[in-house]
Structures are given as C-alpha cells and as structure tokens.
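Problem 12. The chain below contains 63 residues. Write out its predicted structure in token notation.
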Amino acid sequence: MHYQHRPDPVVEFFSGMFQVMIGTFLAIMLGYYAITTIVKMEAKEAMRQIQRDLKKAAASERD
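Solution.
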C-alpha cells in the first residue's frame, strides 16, 4: 500500500459530487434570496400604489 498519493477513484468521485452539490446549493440559495428580495420590494411598491389609488377613490367618492 505505497500508492497512497493517488486517492481512491470512488472517494474522488464522491468528493467531487459533494463539492458540486454544495456549489449548486449555494447558488440556489443566493438566487432564491435575490428573487425574494426583489419580489418583496416590488410588492411594497405595489401596495403603496394600491393605497394611493384607494385614497384617490375615497377622495373622489366624497366629492
């Protein structure tokens, strides 16, 4: 057992798969975070717009 410098191909394969999985997971998390942040901002803006429209409608109702 003196060829220890070269790791087992199975171990190599699984460590590679593991790294790919971690990379993919991090990429998905980052993408999800970015999308939810953008959606939240859009939703806040939409809510403000709806509130403005409701106020306008209420004001025109009173007239």
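Discussion. The mean pLDDT is 90. Students who got a different answer should revisit the alignment rule from Section 12.3.
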